[in-house]
């Protein structure tokens, strides 16, 4: 994997760049649609490429390991062939999903023992087998196994958690370097910076991950319950410590405003389930503000879903989409999801253009005002 830094400006830490992988190029900043179980919910691969303009999508190690299982994916020739997506793929290691299981998981030095949310069966994730699973899935970019520290963790717990993540990271890289890709192209491993909301822990973690000279770095453990301003502060502190010539990935973030504020602080890559999850529930993101399409005010509004939208589905009327959502018709969830994803991809593309033009800061400040509006 290669990263080329194309543009930076003095009044912001925002950057425009280009990542090159075995499955294609990614222009940054970029938003990555989440395909947890190998598919972006309700969206065809064709529409991801041609309408939404996605350049990279995600899969999740935890979910794909449980179902359909690595043997099925290996027999298909890897996730790219299994789901018919020929662009770049990134896989999360499953650390966040295991963290989310709460009482049905137990951490130890070895790894994490957990119960499947599907059938209650017991499994163990270790740094070693998580690397092996991601080798079988075959993503271009794979993530180290970490403990996702809760946003409300006290300092003592956060420090202990970070030390465990650091030891696990050492083991991840040992396993990564002693194994080989399975499908004829290279994979790259990103370490994850943890440390909760504590400055010294974040700085320590950022320094530690650089000892592995990885092709890129992720920032985890944010947007997990901490105040929004703490998230921005930790992002800014961490990006200041990470090298300029490597991409920076802020995991699981977030709203359109979160993304723009984080781009301003030097982040290149984002993912979040919000566009599809909120879309299925009738929330639409637009450049003019947020729409709750369930509201009765849209019942007889026959104007387009988004007059400034870039997606094919924006031609439908608000009244029609409201009818579909209220009626629990599958098409309603599809339209809303596709619109939101197209909006997110438009947002990061526009941000990139403004960074290159040198007008990002003023543009960001103006559009953030609009994004706070409830239509």
Q: Kindly, what is the distance between the CA atoms of the first and last residues, rounded to a whole number of angstroms? A: 42 Å
Q: What is the SS-derived class? A: alpha/beta
Count of folded domains: 2
Rg measurement, Å: 20 Å
Architecture of the largest domain in CATH?
Answer: Alpha-Beta Barrel
Shape: globular
Number of E-state strands = 17
Strand content: 15-25%
Residue stretches low in confidence (pLDDT < 50, at least 5 long) are none
Estimate percent helicity. 40-55%
Output the CATH topology of the largest domain. Answer: TIM Barrel
* CATH homologous superfamily designation of the largest domain: Queuine tRNA-ribosyltransferase-like
Order of strands across the main sheet = 4-15-14-13-12
How is the biggest beta sheet arranged?
5 strands, parallel
Overall pLDDT metric: 96
Look at the structure and give the CATH class of the largest domain.
Alpha Beta
């Amino acid at each position: 994997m290669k990263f080329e830094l194309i543009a930076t400006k003095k009044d912001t830490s925002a950057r425009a760049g280009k990542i090159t992988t075995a499955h294609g190029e990614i222009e940054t900043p970029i938003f990555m649609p989440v395909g947890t179980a190998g598919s972006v919910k309700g969206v065809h691969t064709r529409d991801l490429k041609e309408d939404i303009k996605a350049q990279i999508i995600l899969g999740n190690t935890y979910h794909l390991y449980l179902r359909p299982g690595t043997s099925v994916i290996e027999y298909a020739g890897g996730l790219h062939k299994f789901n018919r997506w020929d662009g770049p793929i990134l896989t999360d290691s499953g650390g966040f999903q295991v963290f989310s299981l709460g009482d049905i998981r137990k951490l130890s030095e070895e790894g994490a023992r957990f119960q499947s949310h599907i059938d209650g069966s017991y499994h163990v994730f270790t740094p070693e087998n998580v690397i092996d699973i991601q080798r079988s899935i075959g993503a271009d970019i794979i993530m180290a196994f970490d403990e996702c520290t809760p946003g409300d963790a006290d300092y003592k717990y956060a420090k202990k958690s970070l030390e465990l993540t650091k030891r696990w990271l050492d083991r991840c890289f040992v396993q990564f370097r002693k194994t080989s890709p399975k499908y004829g192209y290279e994979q790259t491993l990103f370490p994850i910076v943890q440390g909760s909301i504590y400055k010294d822990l974040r700085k320590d973690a950022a320094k530690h991950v650089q000892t592995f000279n990885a092709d890129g770095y992720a920032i985890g453990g944010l947007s997990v319950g901490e105040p929004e301003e703490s998230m921005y502060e930790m992002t800014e502190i961490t990006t200041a410590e990470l090298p300029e010539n490597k991409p920076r990935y802020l995991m699981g973030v977030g709203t359109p405003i979160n993304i723009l504020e984080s781009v301003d602080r030097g982040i290149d890559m984002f993912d979040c389930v919000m566009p599809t999850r909120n879309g299925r529930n009738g929330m639409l993101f637009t450049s003019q503000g947020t729409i709750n399409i369930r509201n009765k005010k849209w019942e007889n509004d026959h104007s387009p879903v988004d007059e400034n939208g870039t997606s094919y589905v924006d031609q439908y009327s608000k009244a029609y989409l409201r009818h579909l959502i209220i009626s629990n018709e599958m098409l309603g969830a599809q339209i809303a999801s596709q619109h939101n994803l197209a909006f997110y991809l438009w947002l990061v593309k526009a941000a990139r253009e403004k960074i290159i033009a040198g007008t990002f800061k003023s543009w960001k400040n103006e559009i953030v005002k609009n994004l706070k509006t409830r239509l």
